[in-house]
Design a protein that fits this description.
Rossmann fold, 16 helices, 32% helix, disordered N terminus, 6-stranded parallel sheet, 5-stranded parallel sheet, alpha/beta, binds 2-acetamido-2-deoxy-beta-D-glucopyranose
Length: 462
């Protein structure tokens, strides 16, 4: 089955042969697509339970069960549900080259090119480097701008800023300079351009983001709706929540293996700093009251008592539940890490946004508890959960955690593929604003009926 977009093709290229497509052809194709779509859905509904594949991303149960992603565990393909995205990825992404745009190099490695990608790929913000590398290798990469559906603008600014490679002012000015050299950015008002902002600050890292890239697609782990800033840089309709970057030692090498439930010393744990956050402070108090149930040490982040990566994971795996309270912002890496040591994550971060919510039923793999109710009541509740239910959630989590891993796209169950599916949903035939109009013959004009190629888009562009 082809999905409607592929059948119609974006305005500037089509995927099928060289026969010109008349409008009648296109409408015919669309009808076929729509019919096949409903037939396939029908079949899916009647036969889904007989399928031999395992359910990877767990659905909402009942009538919707067939609408979930299925992963055939034998190394086969991930069957994405129709209600998710369709059945085939067909995307063309142009990745800007470091040297083609003046300033891009500084966004990748600092003002004097001193900061290496190797130092930026590590840690919870490594997704900014990994996604760039994965897109460079992707079979969906195109080297022709004129046929691209989407454009990827690589930048490692979170890392570059932390390592002193650029300050806030330079980041802002460099982004503006870079964007001003991108005609395709102007053409769409930025709407088909993709940016990654891997930290809690989201797109705020680029001070004038709201002026210049608030129409673009932003990949970020953060839905920072309650952040200290008065405006959120995350918009659920155009942006995509991505998983945080879990240490490779855990995702690919699994150097710290999970413990059997009965061998775990604690009911729950939280291993992190207090950072003066209400929820975290409450947990630390609670741990003093119930030291045998809750492990919640004041962690040292420097000096000889600092936990190493492996020690950290060894602690984390020693509880049935891994608590994930809000920190400086609402997303927390701990949530993702929990799946690799196989504790059940308990979100204590009310505003959190989670990735791929259309295909993952988070109720089956985690718990979200109101942060205003952190106290003995929480521990009592967690204690009341039978081990069988915990085991079940852990088993479900084991199946979906591949979606948190930035593995090559040849791996059907990976963050990479999930992001590509999400991106495919963001492809638009049309990229303009309320000041844009079109005519029967495909001409795009402005309010004064002047052809698109002859006017300056009305939005503020560099
Ligand atoms: C960001 O840079 C642009 C271009 O130099 C400038 O117009 C804008 O005022 C800057 N934004 C901030 C917040 O300084
Ligand atoms: C984007 O920015 C422009 C200019 O600042 C503003 O007019 C518009 O409302 C913004 N759009 C969104 C979705 O924030
Ligand atoms: C489309 O129609 C308009 C109005 O008749 C005309 O001005 C324009 O040149 C046409 N565009 C093309 C591409 O033929």
């Amino acid at each position: 089955m082809n999905k409607p977009r592929a059948a119609l093709g974006p305005p500037h290229h089509h995927h099928y042969g060289s026969t010109p497509c008349t409008r009648t052809h296109q409408i015919g194709a669309l009808l076929v697509v729509v019919t096949t779509f409903f037939l396939t859905r029908l079949f899916d509904h009647s036969f889904a339970p007989c399928s031999s594949s395992t359910i990877a991303a767990i659905g909402r149960g009942g009538a919707y069960e067939s609408a979930v992603a299925r992963f055939d565990g034998g190394g086969g393909s991930l069957a994405w549900p129709h209600r998710g995205y369709g059945t085939r990825l067909s995307l063309r992404i142009y990745v800007y080259e470091e040297d083609e745009v003046d300033g891009l190099k500084a966004l990748l490695s600092g003002r004097d090119g001193r900061i290496s990608p190797e130092s930026c790929v590590k840690g919870q913000w490594g997704s900014q480097v990994k996604i760039h590398r994965l897109f460079l290798e992707s079979k969906f990469r195109t080297r022709k701008k004129e046929e691209a559906d989407l454009f990827f603008v690589p930048a490692y600014v979170k890392c570059v800023r932390m390592m002193g490679g650029l300050n806030d002012k330079e980041i802002n000015q460099t982004y503006v300079k870079v964007l001003s050299q991108m005609p395709y950015f102007r053409l769409s008002g930025g709407r088909n351009h993709i940016f990654v902002f891997p930290s809690g600050a989201g797109a705020h890292l680029f001070q004038s983001w709201a002026t210049y890239i608030n129409r673009s697609i932003i990949l970020t782990p953060e839905g920072d709706r309650t952040d200290k800033r008065d405006s959120s840089a995350f918009n659920t309709w155009k942006d995509i929540i991505i998983p945080g970057n879990v240490d490779d030692k855990m995702t690919s090498d699994a150097v710290v293996r999970p413990l059997p439930l009965r061998k775990r010393k604690y009911l729950a744990n939280y291993l992190g700093r207090a950072q003066n956050k209400v929820g975290r402070l409450r947990l630390m108090e609670l741990a003093k009251q119930y030291p045998e149930k809750l492990e919640c040490p004041e962690l040292k982040f420097k000096g000889p008592d600092k936990l190493g990566r492996l020690e950290y994971f060894e602690h984390l795996r020693n509880a049935k539940f891994c608590l994930a309270p809000r920190g400086e912002s609402s997303w927390t890496l701990r949530f993702y890490e929990a799946f690799f040591v196989e504790c059940v994550p308990v979100l204590l971060s009310d505003q959190v946004e989670l990735p791929f919510q259309n295909v993952i039923d988070y109720k089956k793999i985690s718990i979200k508890w109101p942060s205003s109710r952190i106290g003995p009541e929480l521990l009592e509740y967690l204690e009341s959960i039978p081990d069988e239910s915990i085991e079940e959630m852990i088993a479900n989590g084991r199946q979906v955690r591949c979606l948190w891993v930035y593995a090559p796209e040849s791996n059907p169950c990976s963050a990479t593929n999930a992001i590509l599916w999400e991106l495919q949903r963001k492809v638009r035939y049309f990229h303009q604003s309320t000041e844009t109009f079109w005519l029967h013959n495909g001409s795009v004009v402005n309010r004064d009926l002047i052809e698109f190629s002859k006017w300056r888009p009305p939005m503020p562009l560099p």
